[in-house]
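Cross-posted from the bioinformatics board.
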Amino acid sequence: MIRKSRCNILVFLVKPFLVMVIIAGIFGLVYLRSGFLQLEYSLSDLEKKKIQCLRERKMLLAERTSLLSFAKLEGSRQAGDGFILPDRIQVIHMSKQKGVQPYRTSLERKYLAEP
Amino acid sequence: MSRKRAIILHTALIFSFVMVFLRLTDLMIFSHERLSERAKQQHIKIEDIQVRRGVILDRRGRELALNLELDSLYCDPASLSLDNEDVRKLASAVEKEPKAILSKIPNDGRFAWIERKLEPSAAERVKGLDIKGLGFLTEAKRYYPRGELASHVVGFVGIDNQALEGIELQYDTYLKTTGGKVFLGRDASGRTFSSGVDIEAKGNNIVLTVDEVLQRIVEKELDRAMQEWRAAAATAIMMDPFTGEILALANKPAYDLNKAGRAGDSERRNRAITDCYEPGSTFKIVIGAGALEEKITRPNTLFDVSKGGINAGGKTIRDVHKYGVLTFQEVIQKSSNVGSIMVGMRLGKERIYKYAKLLGIGDKTGIDLPGEVSGWIFPTERWSGTSIGAIPIGQEVAVTPLQILRAYSVIANGGFLVRPHVVSRIVAPDGRVLVSSGENEGRRVISAKTAGAFRDILKTVVEDGGTGQNASINGNEVAGKTGTAQMINPVTKRYSREKYVSSFVGFVPADNPRFSIIVVVYEPKGQIYGGVVAAPVFRNIADQALSYMDVPREDTPQRNPLLVRR
């Protein structure tokens, strides 16, 4: 009689426990799935932001390219503060030399060829 | 009674289960495909992978053509309801006439474009109107940040990014790419999930041999010449004579690549390679190089041109000025027609034709731009009696400016005929070099000795007593040749007395050329001679280009270079 009673108690405890485990498992799965979806939404939003930023970047790059065109720089020159081509009579060529030694300079580049 | 009820209940239950079972069988087996397709449509959104054409860059990596992403406005006519006020606001937002807007909205259907590739500000204005039935799709728009610069080289694309001209057309297979589809999950409210992949496919980038600054210099000087001489058109090409790399190629009138649809035929014509003209005296390179190569003349061989005219096939051809006895060098220097015809007669028509072909006359140069023509020079059996008098002075032949430039580059580079090209390399989006022009192997067509001798003669053209003095540059020696040719009147089929083509072709520094340039001015007013009209343009271009390319002057003191200590 005592053994049967112990067995009943065990069954009485295990059954609800198993039910709870199953329910908790289902909730866990739902929770994970929900978290996963939330992550997907966040990623999607970030991707949209990235696309938007890339789009703006392209616009800005195009604007920068347009502003840096030689024609624009020349336009600035006429305003007095822009690009000018060097006057060749004033250009002095300097050779690239390693170490501490005097710089060789010349008005003609061919005289500065590396030995 | 209770047993009867139980039987009815059991029967009803069994029947119900059978019905459920049959329905499930139908849903899961017989209607499976249709339903799963429907479910897919509800849960999966298919989007096109955005396709972007490759970027076009100049030789120093400066962008000449790139892509923007703009909104295109469409409508769903079935759900669109616009009153007059809405139409007026919409038209104002996209800066169009209300009529133009209404004409784009059909009575039925589910999709129609209203305005494609709107400016961002216009798109924002339309979004602000919040009209039901309107929507936006993002599309790639080709944008040319330099506008008119190098328009005949770069070319342009149409509204659907289909290649229409220039490099865009010639290298379309490299620039364009295929996109495919991307599958995105979405929920019941239509929100999409992350695709997890890059939804943009990029084409290959093209690096040109053209330099933006040199191109700008050439275009600016051509504009100036067009204005000064009130010319109908003008062309200039700058090329590396050793490699055939085109450093600049410009035609005027030109057009803004961002408004290519509005450009006329004249503006869109790439005269440098598609238009033929009679070269006039610049063609004397053929008899000059031929006579030296065949050892028929030497630079100091004398020619008596004192009569001022020469008879060729019953037609007398005269010099502009009367000369006495000229050396061969002076014949070229002063551009004597009589002397040139004498040389031509000594050379003979077979050899004139041979050297014309060797220098690339009458053949396409093979430049990688669409629409090049070959020009023509008749085979000797089709020459008339007067041809031996006309061809040595550049009549009865048709050339493109690029052909003449290539011929003079033979002299500049020591005797090699090179293939002009505008593309330096093609680079994949991952950085791999797919195509590289590399070393352009030229074909030897005349000896180095002949090239050197003729180069010395060409130098005298730009010196005192030559026809091209206006092309001389402070600090560097120039070698070149002037050309003045009458145009054919298309009505009378005779040479026009009013319309001329003035040209100058040369290279600098003469003994170690960095570039060769041809300038051709069509129908200048006031002056006609190449030495007056085209030579100054050459000088202005070359002077600035030498400065930009950091080419030292040759006339500066060399013996005591300045020494500077740190």
